[in-house]
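Protein 1 of 2
SEQ + STRUCT:
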Amino acid sequence: MELNECENYKQLGNEAFKSGNLEEALKYYTNAIKNAKSESKELSVYYKNRAAVYLKQEKYDKVVEDCTKCLEISPNDPKALFRRCQALEALKRFEEAYKDATDIFKDDPTNKVIQPYLQRLHKIVEEIARQKGQINNKLESMLKIVFDPTNEKEKREIAIKNLLVLAREHGGSGVIIKSQVVQKIKNLLKLEKDQEICVTGVRIIGELCKHGEKETKYVLQDVGIPWFLEILDSNNKEIVNAAEYCLQIILNSLSGMENKIDSKPKQDLVERNKQTIDTLLNCLTFSINNQAISGLARDAIINILTRNINYNALNWAEEFVDMGGVARLLDCASELEECKYESAMSITPSTRTIAAVCLAKIYENMYYDTLRSKFLNKIEEFLKDKLLSPDIESKVRVTVALTALLRGPLDVGNTIIGKEGILEMILVMANTDDELQQKVACECLIAAASKADKAKSIVSQGAEILKKLYKSKNDHIRIRALVGLCKLGSYGGSDSSIKPFAEGSTLKLAEACKRFLLHPSKDTDIRKWAAEGLSYLTLDAEVKESLVEDKPALKALVELASTGDQGVVFGVVTTLVNLCNAYEKQEVIPEMIELAKFAKQHIPEEHELDDPDFVTKRILVLGHENITVALVALAKTESPNSKELIARVFNALASERDLRGLIVQQGGVKVLIKLALQGTDKGKRHAAQALARIGITMDPAVAFPGQRALECVRPLLSLLHPDCTGLENFEALMALCNLAQLSEAARQRIVKEGGLGKIENYMYEDHEQISRAAIQCMCNMTMSEDVVKFFEGDNDRVKFVVSCCLDEDKETAMAAAGMLAILTGFSKKCCEKVFDSTNWLDAMHCLLANDVIGMQYRGVCIIANIITTSKSLAEKLMETDIMEILMALKLLSDNDGERKQIAETIDAALKVAQEYGIIKKLDSD
């Protein structure tokens, strides 16, 4: 392109910049850069000008980038140096900013603009140098102790913990990286036998990466991604957790995610670091079915994939399928702990469950039919390859893989099992004398009976086989057959009129499950399946009552959940959901029932033992059996559906006031905040409502200590939505009301999260209790200066508050009067706005003549605030009968201890009125 055309873009950019149209300016300068010749000197001007736009937009990284390119073409350009200096200071890269300021000063000592920057940065750099000197001395002494194996174990452990603290500080991390500590830790971990030192060493590297993209790249340059996978390959859970955390932090830093639940990758950062991010995905994918690694490491790798596979910016889901990740996951999902053959992988009791959850997550991200077909093809290829093999082991692995699919991407599992010959093959395996085949076939039949139509089909074909297997001498076979029968016997759900088996069979099955749950060998596998059996049977109200009265069985459920085995999540949580009746219930419309009767359609019937009184009793029993401890342990699951079930149980427990303190004591709040921010929409709502219920009746300083009070704000505000029920709206407003009273930080967070508009909407609600809660909440919010400004604007908000002082509901009127007292105390404008209301005098009469002392006091405060604000407003009041009412109230309050505050406030207001000369001085008597 000709130079004059690029210059034309530059001129258009300059005009747009001067008029404040930054996006237009950015577009024109970018066009000039794209079309300019690489050797053109004018290119430096275009970069410099675009940097000016980025500076206005506070995109400081891009300012540095463009200014650097400009300086490569035109060294020592003062404008480019100055803009880069400003950006570097904003990025807290003070030493680099100081160097740029010094370079400008050297070339132009008379430059007055740079002098204040130079002075300010000089002080900061001097302080940094002083701190670095101190840090260097500390670091040197720590390193001497840590890396000398002849030192005492205790001294080394203390020193490396101090090093960890230093790594968390921004200044300390830079010094550590420059001192080659990362390499030293890498070498140390090869030989170190002290596990605590090893764990802390890995954590130090994670903390260094936490400081950002630049630090992460330094670390990766020193050790590389494969090294983290080597560290991950351990049987020590703490080391595995630390290495898993490191890998997640590396991904966060390279993709712009923060270590928060709702954080997402930034597209520009992902593109910039695509090669490293793709290398990480490759390493994780090819390690999934690595036979040499530990089971804990395998679980950690699958967890990292599950956690990040759904981010569109990363595009991991599609890439994972393309590089053969599905077959590798199925390899893990089809592995059996009890099968020890040459190519066997090490797995944990949780591996198959974790793999199933990961498969489900990947399938969720197959948004188009072509992607879903590709995913299904990969699965079919894996299964076909196994089925072509004549050995029994391959058939067993196909069945185990199919079970994982039925527990993960259910649609895919149902598609596969619906293919000709698959269900028949499973039934044949169940009917053999081989215990391994019997066991895996039972598991698959249980997973397959997920829908009523399939359950009916299996009842007709497989019930007799399951009954036969229940007579096995092997308890592992018996419990699986029992669970199969339980599931088939419960496909009627909570409809007490459907009984697939004979009367009383369900209770007998439940008793058998409880015996296995209390198995003397404490075998986790057997107890896990017993819990799953109960999860189906507890849809029956009689079984619920039987189980809730069996204290040893409930204790066994809590104990089982506390193991942290992800395989127990479904069984335990679903049982608890059923006991609390916390499952989704279809709304029953009387007219539809009558219509169904007329059409001779089946009508579901609820059992009398599912009446609210029985449900409440069961919830209280569960709460006092410390079921919260179990929920906290199980909440580590990555399954969104399981998280929803956990949230449902928490919400049921929180519905009982007596249990809210227990939830807080046993760590439930921390888990609820996570559940309220991540998972299914219904799960997030249940978790948020549980938090609201806790926040209503408990002191928020106790229920949500420190930062948690701020973290609760977003979940609570999510309940102020038209899709939520009136009860959810009301409870959220009450909890927010208490939080707003807690601190200015809490009020600021509510404002920042867009809460003011939401709370205000409910002030106008027709429902008395909801509008009252909103007004009470807004009353507490007005203690914040920003909220006062919200009322000062060009609006009728103060007029509405004045009218609310006349509300028939005493509590609403009290809250409105309190709000008006605060607003008039803070703001002259709000005092003036009181008179915009046509019924302001009626409102004042109502407050001052009220028989409730609290209302009178609020009224007196409002009048005193208006008088104190200005003489003109005080004169407006004096034109009415307000003065006579104040005098009468003063006489009434002077000798009344309960009205002391009212008398003092009136005195102060009248003195101001005297000073204005509006009223004559009162006699001293």
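Protein 2 of 2
SEQ + STRUCT:
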Amino acid sequence: MRKLTPLALAIAGSLLTSPFSYAQQETAKEEQKVERIEVTGSRIKGVDLEGTQPLVVISAEDIRNSGASTIYDLLKDVGQLRGGSGTFDTTESGTGSNDTPAGQAAASLRGLGPSSTLTLINGRRIAASSFAAGTENFVDINSIPINAIERVEILATGASAIYGADAVAGVINYVLKKDYSGAELNASYGNSTASSNEGKTNVNFIYGTDIAGGNLTVFADYFERKAFAYADRDITKNALNVFYTGQYPSVSFRSAEDGFGFADPACPAELVWRDSFDDDLCGYNPNSQIQIRPEMEAASAGFIFNKEIGNTNFFTDFFISRSKSTAQSSPAIMANLDDSTSRMFTSIDNPGIQANSQLLSLLRDDISSVRFRARFIDPRKVENTTDALRLVTGVTGTVADFEWEAAALYSRSESDQQALSGIYNRYKFNAALFGELCADGSTDCAPDAGGLWYNPFSGQLDNAQALAIIEEFPTRKGKSELLGVDLRLTGDLFDLPSGPVAAAFGIEARQEKISDTPSDNAKARFDRGYIVDVIGFGSSQSSAKRNQFAAYAEFFAPVSDTIDLQLAGRFDHFDDFGSTFNPKVGLTWRPINELVLRASWATSFRAPSLTQAGTELRTTSTTARCLSEYAAIFCGNNAGGEITPNTLELGNANLKAEESESVNLGFAWSPSDTATFTVDYWQFDHKKTIGTDLESMFLRSLTDNSVRFCGLVPADQVGLSFDNWFCDDMGLESGFNGDLAALVADYREFAGSDPILGRDHILLLENTGNQKTRGVDLTYTHRFNTDFGRLTFSADFTRLISFEKERTLFSGTEQLADSFRYPQNLGSLKLRWSGDRAFGSVGLSYTSDYQDEIRLLDQIDQDFITEVLAVSLDRRVPSWTKVNANFGYDFSDNFTISVNIDNLLDKDPPFVFGRSKNVDFINHDALGRNYRVLASYRF
């Protein structure tokens, strides 16, 4: 290893300012840290690159002392991964197409989204989850066995010049243990200190030995977690606003003369509310039935084998994992045959009406049916099982003065989602409202000839027979595969006066395939009017594959005794969207031994995800900002706000790669061997982001009649669906001509605020947006040797200066910094102590205040919050600081017990007046004080 000055060693330690505890053997760990810095961010071996790029490293001891049982738990407090959008755990799980698969999690650097963070294991890729988050594929980090990890290296700067696609915001590299000797058994149990049970149990084993002339390391891990529900905490058990369709109907009568409404007598009194028409309605508290984190069970096992034969080394690493988790969503809203929910009609002969004296007393001769809105009683439950497999085998050797490495990789992720309860067939349900459901499941029976009824009133009683017939169990199956080969070469090219010029060269080829296939009853089809057979279960269908080839070169040149230059370039060719070349330049200057100045510039790219390229038809909703050009036409009363109509998305084989340019400027100053201060300015300019553009479609429809459709948009076209009432009243036909603004104005004169838009607009995924973010990271580390042990004080701070986002060409620029979920200041302080046998730490984790999302809510919610609750539209989510602690003791050289306590002071998270069910789970945690006790025994 070259040029390992005292400053280099100090910088290595300073870059490890992560929220984890130190244990024993600190001197040996310092040497390991220097080695780690040589790994991620460069393919060149044996060169000191710590000055050219900031790197966060989490060691095996840090992992053990973190209290983490999953990769998400390990990363959730790292500053570069906090705030914004992207990093998620299972708090977003559910039954909709926008929900993340139960039990899965993803990491996102700098808030740019999980698909912009490249995930590597031992410097090589891993197959993405077959179930996308929306349309963005991501690597399920919970599928990576945590006990097999030697360290985690986080490089938060553009790295496509080294690693290729998806390294827009940076790289997270999980380095597996190898050449392990001995055996170790770890068992842990964790839970909150609340009265509810959120227990987590983890047992893992690792064993390493020399065998057959090589080293074999095997590992196994088992993890189980109980569910954590909104109802388990005071801050989350009640939804702020119950203006939702209640489980007990809000009832009105269909009358030629007048109508009036009231809440079903079974509706709990606290959920009854009065609307602007003086009708009593029944609300619903969704927090009473949904989960923050679903239960989860996971197991993994694998091995790593290395064997030297002469100057050649053969290596193989392999692991398999299975996770199973059950997500629970609120009960489905009862829906008509056309999927509308506002006018559910049932015959006055329905047994629920005949048994309800209050309903019967209000019936008149001119009333033929009752109108209502309601939810089913049982929550929706889906189970997701994910099987992951990864195999890498290769060989390394030397030729002349160069080291070479060749390897083949196969990685696979398969997921199987199965509805367990709460999903119902809409056709059978609507038949049962009129007593027309047959015992064999057909829908043409008569009430007086054995037809079955569904009673939606008075608690939905006596429906067991009908429910058994109308309930269905749709499925969704996905598979993602990655097959790759690579050849690498690294060594010294020639000598300069200040040292040798080192280089790395490589070629790669890989094939990726993905499929996501729902059962027929969960598909949106034109012949069904895009109406899914079942109620409350969203899905997407996609299938795609691609081949890729790449070649790269990287050079490290000591320009002088104090200046080092890193140059890299990579060419990637994809058989679907074409080719791209990405360079990188890094410069390091050491004017004095105690100071390193560093700078880097790079371009990066993200290939369109296979789901984005291959989506056949995906049911979802799309948000559009109501700009002045079309607000009065399309948005009605929501002018100035947002609307979110139902849409269908189509994949686009002509998508281009997203592009990014990143800059990093900083320095590291070490006034002594025990103290280091670093500052890094970072900037990302991310262009051509992929999404749908409803705003542009609105504007296009003003002059282009080819995107206007009365009723359904044909399956092979894109455009807007216009309401049939609007078309019929205005005498229009599909694909109508004329001045749309004038037509709508005429319609408004007699129809008032009645909608003009229908449902199921079809939009093509496009390169529509841009985002630019910049900020500053600061770290400080100081180590002290005392008579009672070694103390380490560390601090890190991230300032988000700006985050500008243009979702579409016409949406305008949004400043996200300081807005909801984008706190501008994140920081932590840690004091760690390591003695002869005891060790411990205490730390503070800080998240600054930021704007609440009240302004983005619809008008009804805004009025409730501002008028009833007297909360300002400009209300800010308060800052939050939590205290974490870790204590441990080595009872012998073989046996250690440690205790981790998260949120030691049991501080509640800040309350959020928005759509996030009272808590922003991206930045905060409602679990409260929780602990983990770990026992480790080494053989």
